[in-house]
């Protein structure tokens, strides 16, 4: 990859030892697990019950190809994904999927920080209003 990814929690906890699982999607008989089968890939993550990070490399079997992309089997539902390295549900290579996962993780953190900021500011504003004895429109109760 072009850039080094810094692995770890905000508090410095190492996540390099995260559990990584392979998850195969699609229905048996539609190319899953067959020699020479073509897949699209997507990484996802969750927190395990013990608090550790679990990373999943999901495999989606390609049902058919077009000039622009491919139809994949997403657990019995057909889904079209474009070729290329932009924003996609699933990617042609694991490396492309990992880059996409990194971008989604960065955006997830940005959204979470913004939500926390809005929540903290809103809570402070509401507490001040309650302390002053005012309703939302600024009139005294």
Major beta sheet, specifics?
Answer: 5 strands, mixed
Number of helices: 1
The N- to C-terminal Cα distance equals: 60 Å
Structural class: alpha+beta
What overall form do the CA principal axes indicate? elongated
Proportion in helices: 25-40%
* Strand element count: 5
Q: What radius of gyration results from the CA coordinates?
A: 22 Å
The number of domains is 1
Tell me what you see in this structure.
This protein is 28% helix and 28% strand. By secondary structure, it is an alpha+beta fold. The protein has one domain (19-132). Strands 1, 2, 3, 4 and 5 form a 5-stranded mixed beta sheet that branches. A hairpin with a 5-residue loop joins strand 2 and strand 3 (53-65). The model is unreliable at 1-14 and 28-34 (pLDDT under 50).
Give a quick set of tags describing it.
disordered N terminus; about 140 residues
Nutshell version of this structure?
The chain is α+β, with helices and mostly antiparallel strands and 141 residues long.
SSE blueprint and pairings:
Layout: E1 19-24, E2 39-47, E3 53-65, E4 69-74, E5 77-82, H1 94-132
Parallel strand pairs: 1-3
Antiparallel strand pairs: 2-3, 3-4, 4-5
């Amino acid at each position: 990859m072009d850039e080094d990814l810094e692995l770890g929690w905000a508090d410095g906890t190492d996540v390099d030892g995260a559990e990584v699982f392979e998850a195969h999607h699609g229905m048996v008989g539609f190319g899953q697990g067959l020699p020479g089968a073509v897949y699209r890939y997507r990484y996802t993550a969750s927190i395990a019950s013990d608090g550790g990070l679990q990373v999943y490399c999901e495999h989606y079997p390609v049902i058919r190809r077009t000039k622009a992309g491919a139809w994949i089997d997403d657990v019995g539902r057909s889904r079209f994904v474009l070729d290329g390295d932009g924003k996609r549900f699933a990617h042609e290579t694991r490396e492309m999927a990992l880059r996409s996962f990194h971008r989604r993780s960065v955006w997830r953190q940005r959204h979470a920080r913004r939500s926390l900021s809005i929540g903290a500011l809103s809570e402070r504003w509401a507490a001040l209003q309650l302390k002053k004895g005012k309703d939302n429109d600024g009139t005294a109760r």
